Amino acid sequence: MKALALRAPVAQRTWLLVALGALLVALTLFMPALEPLFRAAFPELNNPVYQRESFLQLTLDHVTLVLVSSLISVSVGVGAGLFVTRRAGREFEPMVSSLAAIGQTFPPVAVLAIVVPLAGFGFVPTIVALTLYGLLPVVQNTIAGLGTVPPNTLEAARGTGMSSMQILWRVELPLAMRVIIAGVRVSVIINIGTATIGSTVGAQSLGTPIIAGLVGSNIAYVIQGAALVGLLAIVTDLLFERLERRFTFGG
Amino acid sequence: MIELEGLTKTYAGKDVVQDVSLRVESGEFGVLIGPSGCGKSTTLRMINRLIPLTRGRIILGDEDVTQLPPEQLRRRIGYAIQSIGLFPHWTVAENIAVVPGLLKWAKSRSDARVDELLNLFHLDAGEFRDKYPHQLSGGQAQRVGVARALAADPEVLLMDEPFGAVDPITREVLQNEMLRVHAQTRKTIVFVTHDMDEALKLASRIAILNAGRLVQYDRPIELLTQPADDFVNDFIGKADLGLKLLSRRWVHQYQRQAPLFDDTTAQSTGNQHAWEVDAQRHPIRLHGGRLDGDGTRQRTEVNAEWVATAEMPMKEALSRMVWFRVMALPVIDAEGRLIGEVTMHGVMGRQP
């Protein structure tokens, strides 16, 4: 009964995902086609659609920033979470948790201010800032997720004669996966929004039209950039929701 | 056969299990029992080294396994626990096939074994193989837990209060099932419980532990009739000792020939009671045999609850006599034919 009740809204959200995904692709490819609309809305602007780079290029650059930083966040975060939940690393848990928390306390802008003098402008400082910023939810959820595995399930696993590696891969990680993915989801969504500030230090992204619009008082540019960032975030979130659901066991 | 030699566990300088030595022969049902904190669970978990032992030796069959890597040892020893601990992300079949998988059995062999075990526990293989643990009732999950422990045909089966968390009715069903499975598989079992009635019902040998020491290791009857010391005496509980003893006696030990009712001789046989049977020797009613009536003129109809079988514990037979307020109970065979009787006089006239 419960499974049935859950199924209906998922089917509705599939349509939402398809619709918003299509809208995202359409806007990315055909934003210039909306020029008459923006001209009508903002008659005082000479160039109501951002044309310096294509929105496809900006979106790809944005996705690359998020992908690279999230891959690093996830590998480092899950690795750290695993380490501190093993017997050997247990005493490092408070330290790792506070380090990850500090990473998120630092505003990404402040990280940029520190990293730019060291690593120069562009891609690298943005990746550093996003990686640090996205680390906390991954670390926290990895630790929490592994903590949700019932002790008697672990006891039973040991009792069957599985090695600690087999227990980790076959029992702990699958059971913790839903919570870990929830952490990755939060981290990625945050970074999709935060990646826009990379444009202030020369990393091209969907933040570029936003910054340009803010600097040149062109509200249309801001709307175009922000709409795509927002859509990208929502579509990604819906995708993660479906992924999480795959790792739900039991009632 | 499994033998423990001087098993000792020391935590922070304190011996929680002290020099426990005992031997459970092949096919025996050994039960470790004692008050909480007596070290029975610790002892059990030292056998498959979920708890590393401080001192002592463990001999499995004729092999000293004390130095064997724990993972290898555990694949040879079945382990079932109170909370069951089924893997929630795996189906019943996958759960049962864990150890065969670790031992790298061929798929066909482990599939066949899963079906065989489900059948052993009267779970329909077609229905249950692909269910997930959250779709099972407590009793079904516990059966799957024991099936998992038996999957790779282990030399010994360890059970840590496996029926502690189920309701009393399910527990009794599972206990009966465990007796049947034990009789069918002749597995060597080491079973931990704190429930004396459960121990008396299941065990062929009972080890009583107190404060980390083995106090007495004996057959249930000897434990009841010759307790080693005051602790055992108190632990068994004197209040219902008579009934406990009868729980380890079987109807066939008290059974005797049933006097048959015959219209012509009824008055002259001198029997206090007699059984009227039909052409197939199914008992129909008892003439006499009650204290509240008028001698042999009293009639009691036989019904499905008011009978005994040869394998029934005497305690249950006695309980039925008390409940139906009769002095005798018919003993029937599988076809429902009268093969004898047990009587109140029989129970009282014999040293239990």
TrEMBL record, chain A:
Belongs to the binding-protein-dependent transport system permease family. InterPro entries: ABC_transp_perm/SBD, MetI-like, MetI-like_sf. The lineage of its organism: Bacteria, Pseudomonadati, Pseudomonadota, Gammaproteobacteria, Oceanospirillales. GO terms for biological process: glycine betaine transport; transmembrane transport. This is Osmoprotectant transport system permease protein. It is a multi-pass membrane protein. Signal peptide: none annotated. It is found in: Cell membrane. Keywords: Membrane, Transmembrane, Transmembrane helix, Transport. Its main location: membrane. Pfam families: BPD_transp_1. GO terms for cellular component: plasma membrane. The keyword Membrane applies. The chain crosses the membrane at residues 63-84, 105-124, 175-199, 219-240. Residues 59-240 form the ABC transmembrane type-1 domain.
From TrEMBL, chain B:
Residues 2-236 form the ABC transporter domain. This is Osmoprotectant transport system ATP-binding protein. One of its GO terms (molecular function) is ATP hydrolysis activity. InterPro entries: AAA+_ATPase, ABC_transporter-like_ATP-bd, ABC_transporter-like_CS, CBS_dom_sf, P-loop_NTPase. Keywords: ATP-binding, Nucleotide-binding, Transport. The keyword Plastid does not apply. GO terms for biological process: quaternary ammonium group transport. It comes from Modicisalibacter muralis. Signal peptide: none annotated. The keyword Cell membrane does not apply. SMART domains: AAA. Belongs to the ABC transporter superfamily.
